[in-house]
Specification:
By secondary structure, the protein is an alpha/beta fold. The chain has nine helices and twelve strands.
Length: about 280
């Protein structure tokens, strides 16, 4: 479905991405992970053709994204930015904008039904006549996700889709994204900072380091060594209900353990206690 081959991108004489290659198949959710400033958002924008790569190619369903017009590209790829400015437009009309690639002469009954279905799935129906500049940041984030969904693309690309959302709405939005992927035969690629949240909802994981793909695969690639190499962070990776769970190694003074754990407890004792908590939960 999506093929990225030998993609490189430079900006102002600085190389941001270098020789990036990967494939994403149908019905897949892929999380792109890595520290700030390594090129994650730039990669998404190159896939959407918002940035023209210096070398390499991006193909969706075998078609090079640079060879088709914006309208046709919008039927193949929908993009949800990390930051967008709300306007004095109703929630319904803001989501309806996502139907523009499909609208010929006027808005049809089907267009309105698609919009309403997306709003209902994200719990936005009661806000249909509210203005997007008068709702919360989390609600506006869901409006953007709904707008992308109604494009009915082959691939949805999301830059930090859980940005500004509380934990409940994080999971609601991720459920909605995964449900769309599974039910419509599409794929999603998104940047994430929370590895543990990504593990719950993703099929594949791509770790970016120094502008290139350091590792790409299923959850088995998430190891203590990988996190150390990519983030420079010492962690423990434990098995939690069949999935890897990443726990930063914390000094004893920063852990509010049970009363029998004294201030002089060894770091390994603290980690063992944390491990047991997660294994028992």
């Amino acid at each position: 479905m999506l093929n990225v081959d030998s993609l490189s991108f430079s900006y102002g004489g600085k190389q941001v991405l270098r020789d990036v290659s990967f494939d994403i198949g149908e019905n897949m959710v892929v999380s792109v992970l890595g520290p700030n400033g390594v090129g994650k958002t730039t990669l998404l924008k190159c896939i959407c053709d918002h940035h023209r790569q210096t070398t390499g190619s991006v193909k969706v369903d075998g078609v090079d994204v640079r060879s088709i017009g914006r309208r046709e590209l919008a039927k193949k790829i929908a993009y949800v930015p990390q930051k967008a400015t709300a306007s004095h437009t109703t929630v319904f009309d803001s989501i309806l904008i996502g139907r523009r690639p499909h609208i010929e002469w006027s808005v049809t009954k089907h267009d309105k039904e698609v919009v309403w279905d997306a709003m209902t799935s994200l719990g936005l129906q009661d806000l249909s006549l509210s203005y997007t500049d008068a709702i919360s940041g989390g609600e506006f984030q869901k409006v953007q996700i709904a707008r992308a969904m109604v494009q009915e693309p082959s691939i949805i690309i999301l830059d930090e889709p859980t940005n500004n959302l509380d934990i409940s709405n994080q999971h609601m939005s991720m459920h909605m994204i995964v449900d769309a992927v599974r039910s419509r035969g599409i794929s999603a690629i998104m940047t994430m900072h929370d590895i543990n949240l990504a593990v719950h909802y993703s099929d594949r994981f791509m770790f970016i380091k120094d502008g290139t793909v350091y590792a790409y695969g299923d959850s088995s690639i998430i190891t203590e060594e990988l996190i150390k190499e990519v983030y420079g962070l010492d962690v423990d990776v434990i098995d939690h209900k069949g999935m890897p769970y990443v726990i930063p190694r914390t000094s004893p003074a920063m852990v509010n353990g049970p009363s029998h754990m004294h201030d002089h407890a060894h770091p390994h004792d603290v980690r063992d206690h944390i491990h047991q908590v997660y294994r028992d939960s």
